[in-house]
Amino acid sequence: xxxxxxxxxxxxxxxxxxxxxxxxxxxxxxxxxxxxxxxxxxxxxxxxxxxxxxxxxxxxxxxxxxxxxxxxxxxxxxxxxxxxxxxxxxxxxxxxxxxxxxxxxxxxxxxxxxxxxxxxxxxxxxxxxxxxxxxxxxxxxxxxxxxxxxxxxxxxxxxxxxxxxxxxxxxxxxxxxxxxxxxxxxxxxxxxxxxxxxxxxxxxxxxxxxxxxxxxxxxxxxxxxxxxxxxxxxxxxxxxxxxxxxxxxxxxxxxxxxxxxxxxxxxxxxxxxxxxxxxxxxxxxxxxxxxxxxxxxxxxxxxxxxxxxxxxxxxxxxxxxxxxxxxxxxxxxxxxxxxxxxxxxxxxxxxxxxxxxxxxxxxxxxxxxxxxxxxxxxxxxxxxxxxxxxxxxxxxxxxxxxxxxxxxxxxxxxxxxxxxxxxxxxxxxxxxxxxxxxxxxxxxxxxxxxxxxxxxxxxxxxxxxxxxxxxxxxxxxxxxx
Length: 481
Fold this sequence. Notes:
Blueprint: H1 7-24, H2 37-44, H3 48-60, E1 64-67, E2 71-74, E3 84-91, H4 97-110, E4 114-121, H5 126-135, E5 142-146, H6 147-156, H7 178-181, E6 185-186, E7 189-190, E8 193-199, E9 201-205, H8 206-211, H9 223-232, H10 258-263, H11 281-294, H12 310-316, E10 322-325, E11 340-343, E12 353-362, H13 369-379, H14 382-391, E13 395-396, H15 399-402, H16 419-423, E14 427-428, H17 437-446, H18 448-451, H19 457-476
């Protein structure tokens, strides 16, 4: 026999949950009185007797207290416990962890009913760990998602696990930069709220530039300019055939070398993913330029597979004058005595660079969804974003904070920190190359022969095109029955 839906119980549960969420999330602060019982009775269409019963439950939970003759007010949380614990996951190699801890401390002061547990996970296998934890019912309520992790979630087909919550204060083109939202957009849906970002730019050593008659006004309009400046800063000081100082350091990282491909209007995969176009002349030309920096012109150390941050390491040792890097990694420079600054990347056929970012994703099945949303609201708000800017080089997503020069500290920030404003209009996410994440990994591996000068750019491009097209064809073939 079918049961009639219990509308009363639904209204009762809704009132209880909404009021609990208002208190726990901090919308109702300790000492603040809630609405009168008769007002609540009308609003939720349940009797005053039922309202009193629900309020008694909240008294027993320690959330409110009855004040004779005045009503019900929010009670300060017990000193020995917080009613709600949110779990915030972050990857352990992030440069922002110390600042995040400052942000969480500020959040907990404003939301005394919430404690945030920061869960640090290894970057290797980060997405898999999160998915496994969610499958086991132990998933975090909120987690940091980089643009790389975004691609992994999309490829895993698990984005429905995420609520896609984005605070109303984050408005593309108004309070935030349009391009940053593209980092976390799956078709027409955002799956994470933008939090931080960085374009790939050039960092240069000011003292090396000065020693070679160069300044920050030195033009880097195109690849010829980059090569000219790199040659001027490359020296064999001892005349023994060993180069002690290079003008540039090429990086094989997938977050670096594709800049040259984009600048030459290159394309790896057709927009409809019908075919790979790696053997296009524009791609071959871009890779020829990359390898010429190392082998023909010898203005860059020869590629080493040992470290994805080889260039940054040599830069901090003042053995190279220029590198491609991000505002994230600039946080490493603050503890070194080097004089450094920022330049826009050169163009070639067009201006282009890569855009990286980090967002905050909310677990769709979080048991504390309202409090989780409040945490994202706070972390993308002015107070938290200001902490990011004041204590590090990473660019906050709020335009008003990112461009506030009063927050710049010469002990932390480069002189031309605001170069990112000029670069953003032509910065593109890596997924604009129309590659899936597993294909990006394959591309990285397949290029090793080229970087080691064991293949020509044309041979490499043709081989990769054949490999990818073979994979696409196999996907299109129907399974045999």
